[in-house]
Amino acid sequence: IAFSQELAARYPLPEKTTRKYAGVSREQLTILGENRLFEIGGHTHNHPYLDQLDNTLQADEIQKNKRFLEAFTKRTLRFFAYPGGFYNRNSIRAVQQAGYQAALAVIPRSIGPDQFFEMPRTGIYSSSMTKYVLKVSGLVDLARKITTYTGKHD
């Protein structure tokens, strides 16, 4: 984290970029938390790729985020999404131990004993409407299956 902070101080991003990638604001989170039509889910505190952390750091990231969001929204978090879809068996275990009922992965790997902790989700990382339509229509999943079957990848 110290390296990231030093890098950000030395090479600050333009305000427009910072706003675009700032994530959900406290005000937005409050509004969502008060609306029972929305489910607030956990996603770690600093957004690391969990499979690159040791067991202790994974558990800390997951638990710290859950405690913060539950205290802030005054709601129990039931679902978790692995940042970037990256996880391993230790991630699954840490999510279960944190008390989540299920977790979502962009591309489930079926490495754990409980399918509820590797449920598929659609990653939406682009503001392009075309990409959004392709993802929600299922065409991206079909393309992944084809490339897996043929052995061709990006």
Q: How would you describe the overall organization of this protein?
A:
The radius of gyration is 17 Å and the shape is globular. The protein has 154 residues and is mainly alpha-helical. Helix 4 packs parallel to helix 5. It has a three-stranded parallel beta sheet with strand order 1-2-3, covered by helices on one side. Helices cover 47% and strands 6% of the residues.
Comma- or semicolon-separated keywords:
154 residues, single chain
**Distance between the first and last residues' Cα:** 31 Å
Q: What's the tally of helices?
A: 7
Rough outline: globular
Number of strands: 3
Radius of gyration: 17 Å
As laid out across the biggest beta sheet, the strand order is: 1-2-3
Mean pLDDT: 85
- Helix content bin: 40-55%
Describe the SSE topology:
Layout: H1 2-10, H2 15-20, H3 26-34, H4 55-73, E1 79-81, H5 89-97, E2 102-105, E3 119-120, H6 129-137, H7 139-150
Parallel strand pairs: 1-2, 2-3
Helix pairs in contact: 4-5
Brief sketch in words of this structure:
With 154 residues, this protein is mainly α. It contains seven helices and three strands. Helix 4 packs parallel to helix 5.
